[in-house]
Amino acid sequence: MSDSKQQRKRRRKENTSDDGVGSIEDGEKKEGAVKTKGLTEILTSLIILDDQAKEDEKEVEKANRQEMIHFEENHGKKTRAMMDYFPNLQDYHRDAEFAEGTRKRKARANALAATSAAVMSISAADVEDSVLNSDDKGTLSDKALATGPQRRLWVKNRSKDWWDQCNSPDFPEEDFKKAFRMGKDTFDLICNELTSVVAKENTMLRDAVPVRQRVAVCIWRLATGEPLRLVSKKFGLGISTCHKLVLEVCSAIRNVLMPKYLRWPDEDTIRTIREDFVAMSGIPNVVGSMYTTHIPIIAPKISVAAYFNKRHTERNQRTSYSITLQGVVDPRGVFTDVCIGYPGSMPDDQVLEKSTLFQRANAGFYNGVWIVGGSGYPLMDWVLVPYTQQHLTWTQHAFNEKIGEMQRVAKDSFARLKGRWGCLQKRTEVKLQDLPVVLGACCVLHNICELRNEELDPTLKFELVDDEMLPDNGLRSANAMKARDKIAHNLLHHNHAGTSFLS
User: Fold this and answer.
1) What contacts 24+ positions apart, CB below 8 Å, involve 234-241?
2) pTM of the full structure
3) From 164's CA, which of 188, 289, 365, 438 has a CA 20 to 30 Å away?
4) Which residues on neighbouring strands pair with residue 335, listed in sequence order?
């Protein structure tokens, strides 16, 4: 009996101990489950936050892309609007100029008619008095016949001593060249070429300005760039007369001399130009060197932003406005093609695309030949430009060196152009719509001086500074890339390339 009681006590103790262990294990399990649930919630939160951050980044990138697309569209619209506006601006200037010219012609005709009527009435009265006082009433007296119509227009008496000295045969050649940037023979040639267009006849109101003086007024004004009031004092003419003479002679130079002295060369001349460029650089089939410069102007009243020159403004720390002058020259520095008058905000590649040169190229006029340009122009089937990437091989360095030699021909020619004609160095009084005529006359006179070996005075040397901008699309022809690589390889392979780039 006692044994059974002891066995029951032992079983109760064992059951009690087993329940304590079980409860402990259950507590540990519950605690582990809570911790696992907390970690799961934290990880889930982190994943949600990461996904949200990625979504935010995508939204920002999408917004940036849309903003960039919108900006490019606006920029393109503004550029196209500016390009479309420029021809309309030129048409507006031409219409305004035509209307102003018509008004002036009518006013001059009315004034001339009134003056002529007054003179004729006075002359008739003189004749009538002579008839009444003569002894023979049937014939006119000798005094009445000798009187005739007299000039009645008052003209201010101005000194022409300086021009009379320059026009004298005894005037020194060197002094004449210093004043007019050319010798007497070249000046006489220009006068003879322009006589049929420039010459005016005397009237009963005043004597016409001689041809030599007309041409001298224009050339001295272009050469010195002096204001019209100083031109007036030098030549003994009115300021308005000098302004009119400059525009008339420049227009005559463009119409009469430009077709003769500034034109694309014929086949025989092209052959000579190729040979000269090959001798200079070793690069075949080059027919010209191209460059674009800027001519400073006064801020125009219309479309100011189009003529704003950002590069010159940043460099000179002064607001600058300009128009462009693009030219192609031969090995002697003579212009064979010019494009004048596009706004100064346009980069070189856009000016090229607007030019007649580009239109002729698209028509196949320059197939098989190269025109060399700087880094501001794109590489095309007919435009050869240097390599512009940062890391160049020896072959590419050598090629760029030869391209630079041909580019210097154009730069030196433009430097002589601006040095010879001082009106191109500073803002001029000429109206914007008249500037292309004046600049064209400067290019023609430059060619005449270059062809006649008129040396430029070293004191007139001009330092040419034009900032070149790399075009947005600098490579526009895969065939041109292969041709340029082949030319560069041949230069080095045939020992035409120099080695100065290694020093």
Assistant:
1) 234/162, 234/163, 235/160, 235/162, 235/163, 236/158, 236/159, 236/160, 236/161, 236/163, 237/158, 237/209, 238/156, 238/158, 241/209
2) 0.70
3) 438
4) 329
